[in-house]
Amino acid sequence: MEAARGKPLAVVTGASSGIGYELAKIFGEEGYDLLIAAEDGELTQAQEQLKATGATVEAHRVDLAREEGVIELYSHITNAGRPVEALALNAGIGAGGAFATETELADELQLIDLNVRSTVHLCKLVLSDMVERDAGKILFTSSIASTMPGAFQAVYNASKSFVQSFALAIRNELKDTEVTITSLMPGPTETEFFERADMEDTAVGSEEKDDPAEVARQGFDALLAGKEKIVGGSFKNKLQTVAGKVIPDSKKAEMHRQMAEPGSADD
């Protein structure tokens, strides 16, 4: 990345597809160089496509669900020899099904390792550098799922509740610095999420979803504006988030059940 030191550097995790890819694309189009990461083979294709934005694109295939993967990625970040101006912590997975009888513990522990542990770990490493120079922006991909108990998606929703609380807490801690923290809260978005989470036969998995490019643009604009959070996607998502502040948790859990219970697409 020596050739374009005049450009700011953005690091995007989960950048091989979906919201992460669209975020990386916007960063590139808006004048950033890119360091992108994901664990799947689609990352190579994403890297080539993102070069069309005019950005210098460095790609690293790492499994962030493993502690070693986070350390490896941070090593690549430091080896770039440039400050991280923006970090998009987007990597995450889902797991659908009844917790007691249908899901696999190994899958759920991997989900926690990726959605929660790696987010905290990489944030800790990069944020300390940002605070030291008193500059930088971090975007967390949370979810409107963070606002409700996730019946038939219990561990995923809990992981996003953690991310949301964590992001808002450290934002407050940093209020007297020039480092900003922003939470992006998408609703159901047209990505590979529902296929990978084995949720294609659910009501939420089969319904029309938001455009990941639109969601990414909303997140990017909120990040640059230094906003606390932004509900991404359709107006329906915003209404759902507002309503969630007054609806009892037991009712929200039942509503989520109707969306996420296996076979609910046929109801």
Would you write up a description of this structure?
This protein is of the alpha/beta class and 267 residues long. The protein has a single domain (8-266), classed as NAD(P)-binding Rossmann-like Domain (Rossmann fold), CATH 3.40.50. It is built from ten helices and seven strands. The protein has helices spanning 18-29, 42-50, 67-79, 105-133, 154-173, 193-196, 203-206, 212-225, 235-243, 249-260; strands at residues 9-13, 33-38, 57-61, 84-89, 136-141, 179-185, 229-231. A seven-stranded parallel β-sheet has the order 3-2-1-4-5-6-7, sandwiched between helices. Helix 1 packs across helix 8 (212-225). The mean pLDDT is 93.
List the keywords.
globular; 10 helices; 267 residues; 7 strands; 47% helix; alpha/beta; Rossmann fold; seven-stranded parallel beta sheet
> Quick one: CATH class?
Alpha Beta
The number of helices is 10
Number of domains: 1
CATH topology: Rossmann fold
Dominant shape: globular
Q: What does this entry show, briefly?
A:
This protein is an alpha/beta fold and 267 residues long. Helix content is 47%, strand content 14%.
Task: Compile the SSE list and pairings.
Elements: E1 9-13, H1 18-29, E2 33-38, H2 42-50, E3 57-61, H3 67-79, E4 84-89, H4 105-133, E5 136-141, H5 154-173, E6 179-185, H6 193-196, H7 203-206, H8 212-225, E7 229-231, H9 235-243, H10 249-260
Parallel strand pairs: 1-2, 1-4, 2-3, 4-5, 5-6, 6-7
Helix pairs in contact: 1-8, 3-4, 4-5
